[in-house]
TrEMBL record:
The keyword Lyase applies. This is glutathione-specific gamma-glutamylcyclotransferase. It is an enzyme of class 4 (lyase). It catalyses: glutathione = L-cysteinylglycine + 5-oxo-L-proline. SUPFAM superfamilies: Gamma-glutamyl cyclotransferase-like. The keyword Lyase applies. Keywords: Lyase. PANTHER family: CATION TRANSPORT PROTEIN CHAC-RELATED, GLUTATHIONE-SPECIFIC GAMMA-GLUTAMYLCYCLOTRANSFERASE 2. Belongs to the gamma-glutamylcyclotransferase family. ChaC subfamily. Its EC number is 4.3.2.7. InterPro entries: ChaC, GGCT-like, GGCT-like_sf. Catalyzes the cleavage of glutathione into 5-oxo-L-proline and a Cys-Gly dipeptide. Acts specifically on glutathione, but not on other gamma-glutamyl peptides.
Length: 317
């Protein structure tokens, strides 16, 4: 058994790591002001095309366009029913992104329409086909301007939809529950960043561009996600980091002083890790899923009855 004491681990955590856990994580909030929404341009062509954005295309626009209009399409609902294995998650730990499901004709999905100049059409479609390659198909629908245009002007627009049956579909059974969706967003990160960044940017953009319009699905997920962050995250990360500290010290052997260069070097590497994008999600996954037959959801639901954060990492020895 190692001579490392719980008191020493607590001191290391409080001195070096507590600030990372309790600090407010910076989310890259999308700046949609540069989109110039609803400011029509005059240089257009009848051969231009329109693309409808209802997810990340509302705030992460990485293609050229000549006009941007706010509005909605009818007969669909926006849902976080698609796994993300290439942007906000991985094949091992998928995140969640939005798609559309068929609904009543009175239902609306609000978003942004981008007019693509004919000279850019081929390259933009090629780019978006690749960006939306994980289960999304391109189709055409009717777009209505918002605020509602007295002229009732509409236009044909292209959208990308991930339909049931694609390999990343997550809209059936328990996977379609708000609690499960929020849990995935809470713990997922991928090549494009954290799943939270995706969710909060979508929510922020919707609230800013469509005041007074309620997307109940987004708001329900937000409530559950905020609950997880506010009531579960700090305790889970503290437990996980104290385990990492204990394992780090234990791996260096007994009786090694804490001011030893080897100890300081290992702790510095752990500090560097806590400065990287996705460190929270990585530790949350370890704490919730590794070596445990219960689901992360079951663990989180019982967090209130868990013992002190010290109890688990002492069992390492």
């Amino acid at each position: 058994m190692s001579n490392i004491s719980l008191h020493q681990i607590d001191n290391i955590y409080n001195e070096l790591f507590r600030k990372f856990v309790e600090g407010v994580e910076t989310v890259n909030v999308a700046d949609f002001q540069h989109l110039n929404v609803n400011k029509e341009r005059t240089v257009t062509s009848e051969n231009d095309i329109w693309i409808f954005g209802y997810g990340s295309l509302m705030w992460k626009v990485d293609f050229p366009y000549v006009d941007c209009q706010s509005g909605y399409i009818c007969g669909y609902l926006r849902r976080f029913y698609q796994h993300s294995i290439d942007h906000r998650g991985t094949k091992i730990k998928p995140g969640r992104v939005v798609t559309l499901i068929k609904a009543e004709l009175t239902d609306r999905v609000y978003g942004l329409a981008y007019r693509i100049a004919v000279k850019d059409k081929e390259n933009v479609l090629k780019h978006l086909d690749y960006r939306e390659k994980n289960g999304y198909q391109r189709c055409e629908v009717t777009f209505h301007k918002f605020p509602d245009d007295s002229k009732e002007s509409t236009l044909k627009i292209l959208i990308y939809i991930a339909t049931p049956g694609n390999e990343s579909w997550a809209g059936e059974g328990d996977e379609a529950s708000v609690i499960k969706i929020a849990e995935q967003i809470f713990t997922s990160v991928g090549p494009s960043g954290t799943n939270r960044e995706y969710f909060f940017n979508l929510l922020h953009t919707m609230l800013a561009l469509f005041p007074g319009i309620k997307d109940n699905h987004l708001l329900e997920i937000d409530n559950e996600l905020q609950r997880l962050i506010l009531t579960c995250e700090t305790k889970l990360l503290e437990r996980a980091l104290k385990k990492e500290i204990a394992l780090t010290l234990h791996s260096l052997g007994n009786n090694i002083p804490l001011n030893d260069d080897a100890v300081q070097g290992q702790l510095y590497q752990l500090i560097k890790h806590c400065s990287k994008v996705g460190w929270r999600e990585e530790l949350l996954v370890k704490e919730l899923y590794s070596g445990n037959e219960n689901t992360g959801l079951e663990i989180m639901n019982h967090l209130g009855s868990l013992k002190d954060a010290n109890d688990d990492y002492v069992k390492l020895y």
